[in-house]
Design a protein that fits this description.
Belongs to the GTP cyclohydrolase I family. By secondary structure, this protein is an alpha+beta fold. It is built from 7 helices and 7 strands. The protein binds guanosine-5'-triphosphate (GTP) and zinc ion.
C-alpha cells in the first residue's frame, strides 16, 4: 500500500504544469476544469495503491468443493508504469480449493483483478500478484492466472503495433505439477 494518501491538490498542480510543458494554455476555457478531472480520473485509476486488494477475498465459504472453478474473460484496465497509458484486456482466473474446501464469491475474484489493476503496473507483476493473493487468502490446491492484453504504449506511440496481444500466466500448486490439470484449465480458457 502507498505510504501517502492521494494528494489531489498536488495532482492538479502537476497536471496544470504538464499542460504548460506541452505548450497548452491551461487557462483557456476548455482546459479550465481539466486538472480537476484528470486528478479525479487518476484517483480512480490508482485507487489500488490505497487499499489492500486481497481484502476482497475475506468473503469465503466452506463449500467442500474440490473441483476447478474458473472465471474467464474478466475485463480489466490497468496503467503501464513506463508510459502511464492504459493496457487492457481479459483476465482468466482458475483455482482448485484446498483440503478445507474454501471458496470465494465469484465477483470477489473480479474485484481482486480490479484492485491490482488500479496501480501503475507491468503485466507480469499484475499476473503474479493476483495469483499470489489467491494463494494467501484461499490456501487452494492450485491457482492459474492468464492475462491477455493490448498495451496502448505499443499501439498509439513508439513501435506502433496496434492489435499485438501480450499473454502472461502465473501457475501455482497443482497447476504446476499436474499437466492434465493445467491442460483442462487451458482448454476452459481458450474455449476448446
Ligand atoms: N515486460 C513488460 N514491458 C512493458 C510492459 N508495458 C510496457 N512495456 C515495455 O516497457 C519498455 C520500456 O522501454 P524503454 O526503452 O525504457 O522506453 P521507450 O523508449 O519509451 O520504449 P518504446 O516503447 O520501445 O518506444 C517498452 O519496451 C514497453 O513495450 C509490461 O507490462 N511488461
Ligand atoms: Zn508502456
Amino acid at each position: 500500500m502507498a505510504k501517502r494518501p492521494y494528494d489531489s491538490e498536488r495532482a492538479e498542480a502537476a497536471i496544470r504544469e504538464l499542460l504548460l510543458a506541452v505548450g497548452e494554455d491551461p487557462d483557456r476555457e476548455g482546459l479550465l476544469n481539466t486538472p480537476g478531472r484528470v486528478s479525479r480520473a487518476f484517483a480512480e485509476q490508482f485507487s489500488g495503491l490505497h487499499t489492500n486488494p486481497d481484502d476482497v477475498l475475506d468473503t469465503v465459504f466452506d463449500e467442500n468443493h474440490a473441483e476447478m472453478i474458473l472465471i474467464r474473460d474478466i475485463t480489466f484496465y490497468s496503467t503501464c508504469e513506463h508510459h502511464l497509458v492504459p493496457f487492457l484486456g481479459k483476465a482468466h482466473v482458475g483455482y482448485i480449493p484446498g483440503p478445507d474446501g474454501r471458496v470465494t464469491g465469484l465477483s470477489k475474484v473480479a474485484r481482486l483483478v480490479d484492485g491490482y489493476s488500479r496501480r501503475p503496473q507491468v503485466q507480469e507483476r499484475l499476473t503474479t500478484q493476483i495469483a499470489d493473493a489467491m494463494v494467501r487468502r484461499l490456501v487452494p490446491a492450485g491457482v492459474i492466472v492468464v492475462m491477455e492484453a493490448e498495451h496502448l504504449c505499443m499501439a498509439m506511440r513508439g513501435v506502433r503495433k496496434p492489435g499485438a496481444v501480450t499473454s502472461t500466466s502465473a501457475v501455482r500448486g497443482i497447476f504446476q505439477t499436474s499437466q492434465p490439470t493445467r491442460a483442462e484449465a487451458m482448454s476452459l480458457i481458450t474455449g476448446r
